[in-house]
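Appendix C reproduces, verbatim, an entry submitted by the partner laboratory led by Prof. M.T., so that reviewers can inspect both the input and the predicted structure.
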Amino acid sequence: MWRGRRMRWGGDAVAIFPVGGPAGEMIHHLLEQEGVRHHPIAIDGFTRESLAVEDRQSGEQFRFILPGPEIAEADQERCLDQLSAVAAEADFIVASGSLPLGVREDFYARAAQLAQMLGKRFVLDTSGVALKRAGYGIHLLKPSLRELQDLVGREIATPFDQKKPRAM
């Protein structure tokens, strides 16, 4: 049951995500514990897991993202339907993460279109083909430097390089 508690950084959030198995149950429990409203979309298989390991000497971070199950087209549609159902109260719609197996490459573009149709600002944090296929209507895009370089197809060494147009 949602307790209506404001998030630690002063806003309200609603989480919509595909969920299955023990990891999914843990995520559900942690969100309940923090008082974050959420609408888990039940899927076959186990929620994919990821972890980050930081080498304290070098400061390098290593990320391990386990593949997880393939997300069925019907489950993808249920995620977008749930987003549409709860978005009326939102100022922002935030989408984050790499796409799970089976999720269409244009999923975030579809979410951005939905946000635009609902008059909401869309924030995206993703990489790879999902970033390249993100489409239009994005209010804020948050790529890492590596993700931005992959997107524009060239090295970005200085702040000026971020503004420099791509050579034709």
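Residues 21-34 form the longest helix (14 residues). Additional entries are available on request from the coordinating office.
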